[in-house]
Each structure stands twice: as C-alpha cells, then as structure tokens.
Amino acid sequence: MTAKIAILGASGYTGAELVRIIASHPGMEVAALAADRKAGMAMRDVFPHLAHLDLPTLVTIDEIDFSAIDLCFCALPHVTSQQVIPGLPADLKVVDLSADFRLRDPAAYEKWYGQPHQAVELQKEAVYGLTEFYREEIRGARFVAGTGCNAATGLFSLVPLFRAGLIDPDSVILDMKVGVSGAGRSLKENLLHAELSEGWMPYAAGGKHRHLGEFDQEFSLAAGREVRVQFTPTLLPANRGILSAAYVQGDAAALHAALVEAYQDEPFLHVLPMGQVPSTRSIRGSNMVHLGVAAERAKGRATVFAALDNLTKGSSGQAVQNANLMLGLEETEGLMMAPLFP
Amino acid sequence: MTAKIAILGASGYTGAELVRIIASHPGMEVAALAADRKAGMAMRDVFPHLAHLDLPTLVTIDEIDFSAIDLCFCALPHVTSQQVIPGLPADLKVVDLSADFRLRDPAAYEKWYGQPHQAVELQKEAVYGLTEFYREEIRGARFVAGTGCNAATGLFSLVPLFRAGLIDPDSVILDMKVGVSGAGRSLKENLLHAELSEGWMPYAAGGKHRHLGEFDQEFSLAAGREVRVQFTPTLLPANRGILSAAYVQGDAAALHAALVEAYQDEPFLHVLPMGQVPSTRSIRGSNMVHLGVAAERAKGRATVFAALDNLTKGSSGQAVQNANLMLGLEETEGLMMAPLFP
Amino acid sequence: MTAKIAILGASGYTGAELVRIIASHPGMEVAALAADRKAGMAMRDVFPHLAHLDLPTLVTIDEIDFSAIDLCFCALPHVTSQQVIPGLPADLKVVDLSADFRLRDPAAYEKWYGQPHQAVELQKEAVYGLTEFYREEIRGARFVAGTGCNAATGLFSLVPLFRAGLIDPDSVILDMKVGVSGAGRSLKENLLHAELSEGWMPYAAGGKHRHLGEFDQEFSLAAGREVRVQFTPTLLPANRGILSAAYVQGDAAALHAALVEAYQDEPFLHVLPMGQVPSTRSIRGSNMVHLGVAAERAKGRATVFAALDNLTKGSSGQAVQNANLMLGLEETEGLMMAPLFP
Amino acid sequence: MTAKIAILGASGYTGAELVRIIASHPGMEVAALAADRKAGMAMRDVFPHLAHLDLPTLVTIDEIDFSAIDLCFCALPHVTSQQVIPGLPADLKVVDLSADFRLRDPAAYEKWYGQPHQAVELQKEAVYGLTEFYREEIRGARFVAGTGCNAATGLFSLVPLFRAGLIDPDSVILDMKVGVSGAGRSLKENLLHAELSEGWMPYAAGGKHRHLGEFDQEFSLAAGREVRVQFTPTLLPANRGILSAAYVQGDAAALHAALVEAYQDEPFLHVLPMGQVPSTRSIRGSNMVHLGVAAERAKGRATVFAALDNLTKGSSGQAVQNANLMLGLEETEGLMMAPLFP
Residue D126 gets which letter from DSSP? Predict the structure, then answer.
C-alpha cells in the first residue's frame, strides 16, 4: 500500500524537493499539492522540471480532503505554518519544514523570532525532527518539526561530542559556507545572480542568526549544561550545499573516534578517514552527510567539518526520512539516490 | 535476477554517471570497475560522492572475469575504445560510450578523426545507439555505439522533421550552448574555473566539430538525401546541460505537431506547448529531453529548441536505456529519477 | 577644466557603471546623482563598491541645479526616460541610456513597446548613439540616445557588411548568449542565482525581443532596403558580457576583410585573425569589442562573432564615449581600462 | 619620465594583472615581458584580453637588457624565483611576487617549504612587502618580497590589534573563503569548473597552509611575543576575492576603534561602520580592502572581517603600490580604479 501524501506550500524549493524525492519513492504518492497564491496552476507551470510527472493541480489548503491523506508535509513560510497547522485534522500525521515548531521554549521562540508563538499547545506536541538523534520519538510521533539546515549541519558535527564531553562547551565556533537555495525562492536583491556570483559575504553575523536558538537548545541538551556557541554563515555563489567548520577545543583523534562510533550504523552519515575533509560536491542532491576531523597545530585544538545538501538532508530529505518512520516504512526508503556530480 | 555490469573507464565523468544511475537501478548491479591508471584504488577515493556505495575496487581490464558479466559499458577515451573492445569476449553485450563506433562509413571516420579506423569489422556490427530512433535494432543488438551528446540533442530536434520532409535540408543551422562536463575530466586550460566562469566562447566553429559526422550520417538517412547542416557549439560556465537552437525553414505549427506526434509515447521526450522554450534547469541530472518550437517573424521560418543533460540522456542515461533493451528489461527502468532543481 | 556630470537613475547597474568609469576619467567629475526612491541615501549604501569615492548624496531629480551641470546621463527605466527628459533644460547636453529614444519612427516605437511615444518632438532631435557609426552627428549633438546592448553587438558585427552589400539581407540569424546584468537590478524570479546558475534558456524567442526594432532600423539603413533579421538571445549564468553569432550568407574572407578595413582605425573594435573566435572573458569590464569570422562548410556561408561587455561598451562605456565627443574631449578619454581577467 | 618595467613570469595570472594595472598607470610602461616556455609568443596570444595593448613580445629572461629597466617584477613560480633573482643585476630594483623571500628566518622557510633556501644572502636584504605596515622600509628598498594573498588579508585584519594588545594572541582563528585564481593558471583537477562549481571544500586544513609561516612571523612581531594562529581556507566556486573571518577574544568596540584609527589615512583600507560586514563583490578588480567588526554574543568575543581581491591588493596591486614607493612615485598612482560590480 502506498501512503497518500499532501504537500502544503508546494511552490517553494523545499516543496519541489519533496516532489522530486517522492517521485522515486516506492511507498509514497503525491495526492494533494497546495499553494494558495498559485492555486489552479499546474505544477509543471510552476516547476517545469517536474513536467514529466502526473501530479495533482495546485489547490488551496481548504480544498484538500485530508481524510484521504496519510501524511502531510508543511513547507509553508515561517509564521504561516503556526497559523495553518492548528487547523488541520488533529489526528493527521504532519511533518513541518518551517522554523515554527523547532524551539520547545516559547520564550526562546519569541526572543529569536521577535513575536509570541501563536500555537503554544501544538508546540508541546512537536518532536524535534533530526532523525539520527530522535529516532524513537519520531517513530511514534504524530507531529514532527524538521530542523533548520544550518542547525542540522552543526548538530551532526557536534552532538555526539557534547554528549561524550569531549569538547569544551564554552569555545565552540561554527563557520558555515552556504548555498543560496536555503534562502528559498524569494525575490531579494542579495539573491540575484548579478549580486551573488563573484560576491560572497557573511550574513546575520554577530550572533544574530535564528538557527542559534536551535543550537542553544540542542547543544545544551547534549552537553547537560547551558551552551552558547558562535555561528557565522557566509552566503556563497552556489545553489545547494552547506559546508561547516566547527572550531573546537578537544582531542582530534578522540573526536574522530567518537563520530565514527556514533555514526557507524547510520545509513546517511559518513565519517571520512582522519584528516580528510568533506566537499559539497560529494553530497549534492542526496541525503548524505560527509564529516571530517582535522587536528590543529595547537595541542588540544581540532576542527570538525561537515557537508550536506540543505534542500535534501537539511530539509526535504530529512522530512521524508522522518515520514518514513512515522508511516512504519523503512527509514531509508526513497532516499538512497546517489549524489549528482559533476 | 540482477544483471551483472562491468564499466570500463570508470574514473571519468560518464563512468561515474553510470555508477550513479545503476546504484538506483533495480535490475542492475556493478560487478566490475576498470580504470587502468587508477587500478587498485577504491572508487570512493576517485569519486568521493560515491563513498556510501559498496563498489568493487578499480582493476585493470585484464583483471575482469567477463564470464561473470552480463553487459559491459565502455566509457573509455576515443581511440582507446576501438583498441579494447575487439579484445572482449565475442558474445559479451557491450554499450560503447565513445565516439569510435558511431560512424558507419570508415571513410567518414577517417575524415573526422584524422586516422584510419582500427576495428572496421566491429564497426559493421555496431548499432547506432539513439534509442528512440533505433529501438528495435538495439533490442536485438550485441554491440551498441552510444551517440554524442550534441548529436543526440540535434537529432531529437530534427530527425522527425527531416523524415516528414517538413524542413528545408539545405539551410539548417544548429547553435548549441553546452556545459563543461561534456569535455570530460581532462586537464585543459580552457576548462579551468578561472577561465570559464564569466568567459564563454564558441569552439570548433566553422564546421570543425566532430559531431558533424554524426549529423551528416543521421540527417541524411532521415531526409533520404545528403544533408550538411551548420553547427556551432558555445562552451558555457556551467557543468551540465546542452541547449540547442535549430534555425530552420519550415512551418512552425507543422513542426510542432510533427514533434508532438512523433514523441507522444516517448517516456523521456517532452514537447512543450507551442511557443514555450526549454531550459537546462528543467532536465538536470535526469534522462528527460525538453523540446520547444517558436515561429519566427519571417513567414516559413521557425526555431526548434531542445534541452538535455549531456551526461545523462546525452551519454550514460542513454547507455543504460540501451542496456535495458539489450537485457530484456523495461526501457525506463532506473531512469525515471526527476531532475535536480535548483 | 573638468566637465560637471549629473547621473539620473544612479541606483541601477548602468548608473553604477557610469560612476565607475567617471571615477577614473580625467575630464569628468560626478556633480549630482539622482535616484528618486533612494534620495537621501549615500551612494556607498546603495553600492558599497563605490565606498572609497567622494560622491554627492543621492537626491531627487528636482533637487539638481542643472545650471551647474555640463552633461547629464539618464540611466532611468524605459518610459520614465521620456517623461523626465522633456522637463530638463532645453540646452542641457543629455545622453540617454534607456530604450526610449532609439527608434526614429514613432510607429515602430509603439509597435515594439506597446504604447504611443510620449515625447515625439524630442525623439526627432535624438541622435542614435553608436559612436563608431554616428561619430560626426554625435559630436554636434545635444541629445544622444544610447543603443541597446544586444543591438550594439549585432550592429558591430554586420553594419559594414550590409553597407558593402556583402551579405544576403534576407537570411541573417543572430544568436546571442548574454549575461544577466543586462536585465538590470530588478527583482525577477528568473534572475535569481538559484534559477539561473546551471539553468540557461532562450527568452523573447520567436521575434519578440524589443531590440529587433533597432536592428530593423539600422540594418535597413545600412543595406539601403528593408531588412528583418532573426534574433534569439539566451540568458546565461554569468554577469557581464554578450557573445553574438551572426549566421550569414556571404564570403567569409570578404567579410573578414571588410570588417578589418572598416575598423582599422577604431580604438575599441578589434577584429581577430581569420578563423579565431572571441570570448567574453577577453573584454569584461572594458570598452573593447572583439570580432571574429569563420567560414562554414557550405560554400558562401559564414559566421560573424562578436563579444562585448553589455554594461560598458553596450551601455555606460558607450555613453561616456558619446559624452566625450559632445564635450569636445578625446573620444577614448577615461575608456582605455584593460579588461578584467580572470 | 616614465619608469621602464620588466615582468618576469608574464604568462601567469599575476603577470597579466600587472600588465592590466600598468596599462593605465601614467608613471610606468611595460618595457620587457619574459615567460621562458612561451618566449617568442605575442602577449595577445597568451592573454587575448590584452590584445588592444602595444606590448613587447615575450622573451626569455636572458634576452632582457636590464640596463634599460628601472624596476623588475618577478611573478615566477615559487623556488624558480630564488634561482632567478640572484642572477639579476645587483642594483636592479626588484619586487618579487612569489613566496620565496617572505620568511626572514631560513629555518622557517625550510619548515614550510620542505627544502633549504637557495638564496639566503638575498633573503637578508628582502623587505616584507605589505605597504601599509612597512612603508618606510619599502621606500628605501631595492628588493621587496610581496606578501601572500591570504597573509595580506589576515594581516590587515589583525596587525593593529596585536600591536595594541587588544586581542588574546592564543585563541585566534582565521577562516578564509577564497576564489580560485589564487591557485594560478595551473592544470589541477580541483581547479576545473566541473569540480569546483557547486563544490566547495577546505584545503590545507589542520595547520598545513604555507601562509601560516607568514602569519607566525608577522603576528609574533606585532604582538611582541610568539603567536601561532589557526587558519583554514576554503576554495570557492568564484574567480577573484578573499573573505576572511578572524574569530578573536577582544572587545569589539575597541577593536573597531583601533582599526578605524590605524587606517584613517590609508587610501586603500576602508573600515565599515560597526556591525557591517564586507563582501568580495565590493572590491573586485580594485586595490581596496574592506574591513568590518561584529560583536559576538559572548562577552569579550568579536569577529573581524576583511575582503580583498587576491590578484590585485593581494598580489599585483600590492606589488605596484610597493614599486610606486621604490620609484619615488605617488603611492596610489595607477591604483585608484574602482571595483568592477556586478
């Protein structure tokens, strides 16, 4: 039997990526696609690369008969998500891809997003959707909040190290180099080709990026104490991928060994041999994460590198991975496509 | 039962693309990988993006036990292919991706490649591997010669029109805009990022490109008379994709109707509505071809556009499509992955 | 003495390019910068790359004291230009960079731009601003209308050939590959990095591009009869540059000789040796045009290639070249900067 | 009077950049160009973007009459430089752009470059060529060793802060995002467009980059004690530019004030307002450096950002700046070209 899937917010990049993945997924089929402003359009007119697929016409959310839906992906903009999801059937399985339900503490949400949370009760139910760390909770969950793409990259790099107490929690610096698709299909000047190509720059520097809320929450949990890392992303002239360097105090060999052990049975997490570094070219379009560790000159200093595709493992691939568990399917189903290179 | 596949020349881009496709192909498995100069290396060290796959170590061609192989892809450099393939078992199914066996006429080969053909007998056996036009011959073939990527793009644009006599054979101009991966993983100055990014230029202009030999052969056959088209490719700062504009004398509506009819049952060929134009962004990483027709101002002038991925439908995807037929598998098996966008 | 320059529409790419050029121009200085919606801002906040220059604050057009201005560049959007320029002092020297005054025939304007011209009287005064072909008229002009960037590329390729009657006027096809900055700093989905990088496609195909109006006007004039060429531009993942291929009926050697002779004294037009082709990498950021001619296989067929930088020679550099003549300065003053490569 | 300039190693990117700059320099003219393997070629055939310039034909170094040369730039590969320069006339003014003479301590050279220095005496004479910090020594020098491009970026960020004792010398981390032209015009697989575009990765991670030798030397000098920073560069899909983030312990406001004060009279160093961050798009093709400071969440933590063009301010522009001083010219002569954007 094939699970019937609805996608809300199907006209954005993460919506398109969900369709791309599900198109090759033997256990899912796209039963409904919603995009309020583009309702009535054919998906092939919004995304010509999906022209060969037999997909439902875009509708408004109201038009969907959710009784025929097994699981709903919400790829809506932030804030919209917390307005829409409370109105969905209470027993509908939902994976949210927005930032709205990632922070368990409503005060933290208000701090980072500048306004009170509008669905505090629903927040209590949300399971944080980084599969590798919350697998069992997700398996039994009705409502999962997918992580941020930067957050995922940092968590894969460091959570096992915080848990094992192998790094100094007070001196962690995360420097990420990120492709532009993470910003979505929005019309902003800094996302234009003419601005970005040959022009790279940091953004949200100085501790202002909202994914810091996720880092604070999850790293503190992993370390068993309050952790506040530094984080600086740089927007690159490239479409897909995040490459993270985590500068830490810790023994490189021990860190490498801890990651190898933590991830040895993980189908999507690949720890490179000691001293090797990952590249975004090696994970593009896939659900894979490549990790590497290098020892620095200064004794006790190491750098942990990680690379993933922000639209796949950082967002829509992760969402399908979670949905697989929630639907009782094999966790890797539909997700083993090899990266596209070159 | 899964077909056991050998890939000769596995360390190039088309070799890697074959592995990428076969990794998700339910009817094939990679049983042997050869790359003479890199024999002994693990594939993950040559192509880190394939690190998650359980692949055989690279060997020399001599080390392969072909009795255990059902079909062999030759992704070797030109000339090497005609030296190697005659030495393979005479009953081994082979799909060649090089240019060596595409031209039926040894004199045409010598003209375009500047040296006599070294395996004239084998050439006689070769079936030209553009599946959509040679489907039945390929189904029964032992040895198939895959087409060039530019050739494929032009043939999909025009063969049905030549066959139907809808265009003037003496005034066809093909202008193609091509990504750099078509040139392979070779160390040439003009393929460096610093030379190519923000720098595009024609190459092999003035009727010098070797794929003209293929155009001459196939267009003449389709038209039932000698045809010599003009062809100018431009190398772009991009990795994958070919976008072709064919400037022709013919009635645009009739051309569009002819393409729609010719391709209506083709799973990989998608004719856009009249007046719409294809983009490489819509076929990247897939086996799809998008075609479009526009009427020009001058009465009786039209332009036929086509876009495909040179490494997939233009090379390795086409090769797998042929292999599917040769092995009695479903033609589309393993090839329905959706394009990667963005 | 230094000419005092005003730039209207200083917050767009052509405005910024004017400032870049004038910053190194010994005979000009920027005296006023207008940008209605950004009035009050410092230029360094609109264009941080100009931060080191001592520039006037952006103002509205009304705030400029034109009595202190020697020449005014109008880099305003189309239509806005024809509303603003009639209100400027009648004796002010003006170079317009918009499309508003390029077409001498108001009916042609209405046909291509879909509305009646609003300043027909002023249109009569406008001199068409392609310096190499209208040098003497420009020297004495008060009001010059700069050409379109695609138009300039095509005219440099073909005007001397039409004038000499060396090509068949009825079968010319122009295929141009253009960088994205020609579309300006406008927020459109197809100009986003995530859409354009690795995704190229034709636009305004089928004889719809507005620069056809300029081709019709100038080619007909050069040929002494009505000429209607075909023209298809393709938008590339690159910022600056236009590469044009003109497919023509004519003798390649004669065409090459005619271009060499026509341009032998031109400081900005460089005809490559017979058979060589130009690249955008060789003219980026400069006022240079590189041209090349290749003979095709078919007797009497040739291709004329041209490359220029759409923002410099195609727009702002051309405008300064015209302004130099109008102000009695040396034509090349401030314009001999070498291209930027890589 | 115009200084007669020789360029050794004129066929590389830094050689071409020297020609580009000198072409607009009123006080210099190119009198000799050497490139051993390309001797006899016209510069326009090696670098078509310089076709409009009247340049001497490439010769071997031996063919140059140095008695007619006022200053010689050596843009030779590392190691070659230390073999060639000792053979030049002893009173010839020389600016070396290689890494050969940057490290004052021969032991440090041997450590980082893996072999003994071959011109130890000449090393003693070399003045370290970062103009802003060694202006007076350079003015009187005969032989100047230009800095590395990464080194320059880091030194501009931090030298005034080390001098003023405003940052903790033991916890500095430099993370740089660098364009590919810094690797030169060399044929390496990782520099191919197909490998680099959409694929970014760190290199020389784990304290292995040779520019660390320069950081150690200059930061220790500035701090008055031994300093060993961390440094990780990431190679980006872009041609020109370095963006550096220096993660430091120090008071952000104090750091910003110190940089503003240190650079207030520097024509090429521009400190952005507190909290603003630089972009490579704003310095491309120019001799400018943009710097910014952001306060981090953790009290006493700050990040210092810097952006420059590796080929201009990081190499050839810096070399001309030094040459201006050595020749008694205005320091900024020929170097005030505005950045190219977009």
Answer: P
